[in-house]
Amino acid sequence: MAGIYIHVPFCKTRCHYCDFFKSTNLAFRKQYLEKLLEEIRERSDFFEKNNTPVQTIYFGGGTPSLLKVEWIEKILESIQTNFRVIDNVEITLEANPDDLNFEYLKAIKNIGINRLSIGVQSFFDEDLKRMGRRHNALQSRSALEWAFKAGFQNVGIDLIYGLPWSDSNLFLSNLDVLQEYPIVHLSAYHLTIEPNTQFGKLKLQKKLFEIEDSKSEKLFWNLHDKVEQLGFEHYEISNFCKEDYFSRHNSSYWNNEPYLGVGPGSHSYDGNHRYWIKPDLHQYVTKGYSEGLSCESLTTTDRFNEYLMLGLRTQKGIDIKRMMENFEEFWINIQPKVQKWLDSDFLECEDGYIRGTRKGWFVIDGVIKDLFLVD
Ligand code: SF4
């Protein structure tokens, strides 16, 4: 199975914490669409070698909800024409609450969008204002109501935790909304202060700091416990879902399946190579994708490290049998280190899988780094 990711690199304004590639110049949207359709046509043989059917389509950004309904429809039609798409394909659209209204939601549902990921971030206006978000809490609630009224069943929200000015009880009260609406998916990301952002500048001026690690860890497990009590499964370090409502698209990344990314700043993977398109909107709309396309061949070490990293971030962990089949020598090579983490209770081994324990999962990135191999 395979996935297609469409990068929509537009935002009305920049949020204070965000370093994703995007442009606030919305005037290029029409030209972007034309070049995007061209790219989809020209890369239609991306999966042809193994004739892999497309099972997920994901509009991410940026702000995909800034696209008109007819544009989204054109993109979907082009994908259907140029790729082998399965019947019950998962089609996700990331959306900002302030872009949504009942008519828009109904219209995108009618053209095939069947999964919504709404960038709520917080249900407190003070948080939203300080993060530079364009919407308020009331707009998030309205967006949720309209989404369910329009007939969406697969609706998820994004939240940010670890805000320096907030406290844990306030953040955790955001989760009450999971009892008020039939939300089936939650992505919760810890705030990181990136250098090239408004928050990065404030950090340099010593006006804003990340919260202490001990507080972050406590918050992570409070979040985990509360969301699990509400019937969600914590299936990846930042993701929770109700039964069977995991993101099929993101799970295919974690399962090492191929995907094609289109649009400036997007990445693709065919099992052996990684491709990326330069995050340059002007170049993309004037010269097309091929000018900015780069490719690198992945070594076995790269693929091993990738599988290790993605697997250990999931609740399921890494499949030892699969490791032995694909990377026997590498896997044997890191056994002393794996044993060290098992002995110190950061990792556990169960049913043929190795995964992070309660002590280890929050700091899993450090464990992964230790296990990485270098060529
Ligand atoms: S809307 Fe999303 S992509 Fe755009 S600036 Fe804000 S966080 Fe970044």
From TrEMBL:
Subcellular compartments: Cytoplasm
Radical SAM core domain: residues covered: 1-233
Keywords assigned: 4Fe-4S, Chaperone, Cytoplasm, Heme, Iron, Iron-sulfur, Metal-binding, S-adenosyl-L-methionine
Source organism superkingdom: Bacteria
GO cellular component: cytoplasm
Any GO molecular function: 4 iron, 4 sulfur cluster binding
Protein name: Heme chaperone HemW
Protein family (similarity comment): Belongs to the anaerobic coproporphyrinogen-III oxidase family. HemW subfamily.
Main location group: cytoplasm
Function: Probably acts as a heme chaperone, transferring heme to an unknown acceptor. Binds one molecule of heme per monomer, possibly covalently. Binds 1 [4Fe-4S] cluster. The cluster is coordinated with 3 cysteines and an exchangeable S-adenosyl-L-methionine.
Any single biological process term in GO: porphyrin-containing compound biosynthetic process
One protein family per Pfam: Radical_SAM
The keyword Zinc-finger belongs to this UniProt entry's keyword annotation: no
Keyword Transmembrane: no
Gene3D superfamilies attached to this UniProt entry: tm_1862 like domain (3.80.30.20)
